Amino acid sequence: MARKYEMTQAIYDYAVNHSLKEPYLTVELRDETFATERAARMVSSPEQMQFISMLLKILNPKKCLEIGVFTGYSTLWMAMAIAEDSKIIACEYNGRYEDFARKYWKKAGVEHKVDLRIAKAHDTLDQLINEGAAATFDFIYIDADKLGYKDYLEKCHTLLRTGGLMIFDNVFLFGEVIKDEHVNDVLPTAMKDFNKQLHQDERFDISMLPLGDGMTLAYKK
Ligand SMILES: C[S@@+](CC[C@H](N)C(=O)[O-])C[C@H]1O[C@@H](n2cnc3c(N)ncnc32)[C@H](O)[C@@H]1O
After folding, report:
1. Count of alpha carbons within 13 Å of 208, Cβ hemisphere only?
2. 141: Cβ below 6 Å to ligand 1?
3. Is 141 contained in some domain?
4. Is the pLDDT reported for residue 1 higher than 70?
5. Distances (CA, A) of 39 to 20, 33, 35, 42, 141
6. Using alpha carbons only, what angle is made at residue 90 by residues 89 and 92, rounded to the nearest 5 degrees?
7. How far apart are the C-alpha atoms of 178 and 154, rounded to whole Å?
8. How far apart are CA 211 and CA 169, in angstroms?
9. 44 lines ligand 1 (CB under 6 A)
């Protein structure tokens, strides 16, 4: 497909440098994550979260779901963007990050909007479905175990209302999805399969964006 320019790191940096206005608390949280966590590169990029934050302000979702919280960076952006009476059910199975994340949610005055569930997200989603929450969520952000994306797609399709939006992060898998050979095939193969499957899924309108490590927006028809 023809482009009017080559998407280089320089043009990507230009876009970020001419658009990013990151709140000081998310900067602080991200800096502390990078200073203290070995897996810090798991945090979503600020330009991605700024985009999601704008979408949330436009969509005004009442019920959000997040899968994969880590130190609470994406949750903080989302909680700051939604209305006072809106809620995020945030799924994370590693309880070690809870105090870190809560410290920042509290500092930002948004802790009351976050309902953190420390458990395997697959189980939390089953529980929500069993409790009758099908078709009640307006927005879902998925950024956890990549091998679980196919399962999340089905469970989140059940939980999302018609007209709701879900976003899958890391769909480029750090560039591995365009390679033919990999040091280890498991994750790249799973992500390639997932991207192919979602592309062919007639239940959604989708858009795959080259922001951060790539993210796909899926609108439930
Ligand atoms: C990429 S990080 C999330 C980053 C976060 N969204 C952000 O932008 O800062 C993925 C997180 O998902 C969690 N996770 C992985 N598999 C999970 C599962 N099955 N259930 C719940 N959490 C899971 C990991 O512990 C990790 O904290």
Report:
1. 12
2. no
3. yes
4. no
5. 24, 9, 10, 6, 20
6. 145
7. 25
8. 9
9. yes
Q: For tokens 């469970």, what's the residue?
A: 155
CB of residue 90 inside a 6 A radius of ligand 1: no
Cβ–Cβ under 8 Å, residues 89 and 67: no
- Domain region containing 97: 9-220
195 inside domain: yes
Q: Report if residue 160 sits inside a domain.
A: yes
Asked if residue 3 is part of any domain, the answer here is: no
Ligand 1 centroid to residue 70 C-alpha, Å: 5
Residue 63 in tokens: 């019920």
CATH number at residue 130: 3.40.50.150
86 within ligand 1 shell (Cβ under 6 A): no
Q: pLDDT confidence of 182, banded at 50, 70, 90?
A: confident
pLDDT in tens, 18-41: 999 999 999 999 999 999 999 999
Mean pLDDT of 162-174: 97
Number of domains in the chain: 1
